[in-house]
Amino acid sequence: MLLAAAAVMVLSGCKGGDLVSYDLPAKSARYTFETNTDGVKTVWHYTSATATKDDAPTQSPCIGELVGSNQAACRPEPLIFLRYDLGLALDNTAKAGEDHQVTVVGYYQQRLTDLPEVTSLKAETTLDGGSTWHPATTRATGENTFTTTIKDPRRDQAAKGVGLRISATDSQGDTVTQTIPTAYTLR
After folding, report:
1. What confidence tens digit (pLDDT) does each residue in 127-146 have?
2. Could you tell me the CATH number of the domain that includes residue 116?
3. Spatial separation of the C-alpha atoms in residues 16 and 79, rounded to whole Å
4. Helix intervals (H) in the chain
5. Which of 87, 88, 111, 171 is the most exposed place for a label (fewest CB within 10 A)?
6. How confident is the model at residue 16 (pLDDT cuts 50, 70, 90)?
């Protein structure tokens, strides 16, 4: 059984009864999980593993143990989540015509016991709402941490703001691609 509650809580803001879990076949397989929250699209490709009773720590039990009678083994899946420091001013803008840095950190659910390493990250920007994408220079700057340099254009060249598409891969071959149509505007 897959415990998707953490992903749903993070992505939906957890409005009370938003805890969701679902069954996956017992044997390991490759899956795609997609969400679209407030226009931000996230797509994960990951390989599940066979759940064992040891995968659910007692301090963080499976959802079936909490709200139902399902006692089947469950485990969190190795979904890569992304946290951003966009390097913006207090009004969530960046200065037009200058370079600025964005830091992206890949992380996993706390319940996951065997943490992979995020091995690569690719960043792209769009100035036209996603019709065209342009690569941004990215480098590893720490454990699961990457910094990308965005060359912000003149304000009139990005009337819709600057959008980001971030793709990350980990040491187990799992991936995430997150598309933020308008990450920030220019001043």
Report:
1. 999 999 999 999 999 999 99
2. 2.60.40.3550
3. 22
4. 5-12, 63-67
5. 171
6. very low
Give the number of domains in the chain: 2
Q: What is the pLDDT of residues 40-49, one digit of tens each?
A: 999 999 998 8
Task: Tell me which residue has tokens 């490709």.
Answer: 45
Phi then psi for residue 147, to 5 deg, are: -120, 130
Q: Tell which wins on pLDDT, 77 or 150.
A: 150
**For residues 135 and 138, what is the distance between their CA atoms, to the nearest angstrom?**
9
> And the tokens for 154?
């003149």
Q: Within this chain, do residues 108 and 41 fall inside the same structural domain, yes or no?
A: no
Domain assignment of residue 144, given as a range: 81-186
Measured between alpha carbons, how far is residue 87 from residues 42, 71, 102, 129, 150 in Å? 22, 45, 6, 21, 10
Give the pTM.
0.81
Phi, psi of 120, rounded to the nearest 5 degrees: -150, 155
Q: Which two tokens stand for residue 74?
A: 């469950």
